[in-house]
Design brief:
three-stranded mixed sheet; about 120 residues; globular; about 30% strand; alpha/beta; 2 helices; 2,3-Dihydroxybiphenyl 1,2-Dioxygenase, domain 1; 7 strands; about 15% helix
């Protein structure tokens, strides 16, 4: 029986650029306790026992045409406490996002490598 999500993994071609997004825009801190793998990457703790893992590996879907609205693409959904604050931070950084088409308080954006993240206000 599934009891939760341990981590979500995203591929990146430029770790420095991705770290600027995950740390600078989303405010995450790298977990220094994670072991070094045979490829470069970084782990972020996002909640009790839950993490995001960035792996520097070639993108096997580099030329794949992705939908404009992230809600129509595969994504991970993360809970946040203040959607307005996140929108303001993204706008200040010149980032684009789309609001959920369901009418709930949520937005979708892509990280620098095109991975989709959904943020749902709790």
């Amino acid at each position: 029986m599934i009891t939760g999500i341990h981590h979500a993994t995203f591929l990146t071609g430029d770790l420095s650029r991705s770290r600027s997004f995950y740390e600078g825009v989303l405010g995450l801190c790298a977990d220094p306790k994670r072991p070094q793998m045979e490829y470069d990457g970084v782990w972020y703790d996002i909640a009790s026992g839950q993490q995001i893992h960035l792996m520097v590996l070639p993108d096997p879907e580099r030329n794949l045409l992705r939908p404009q609205h992230g809600g129509r693409d595969r994504h991970v959904a993360l809970l946040i406490s203040n959607l307005n604050e996140l929108m303001a931070d993204m706008e200040q950084m010149g980032m684009t996002y789309t609001l959920s088409q369901s009418g709930r308080r949520a937005l979708f954006c892509r990280d620098p490598d095109g991975n989709v993240l959904e943020f749902i206000e709790t």
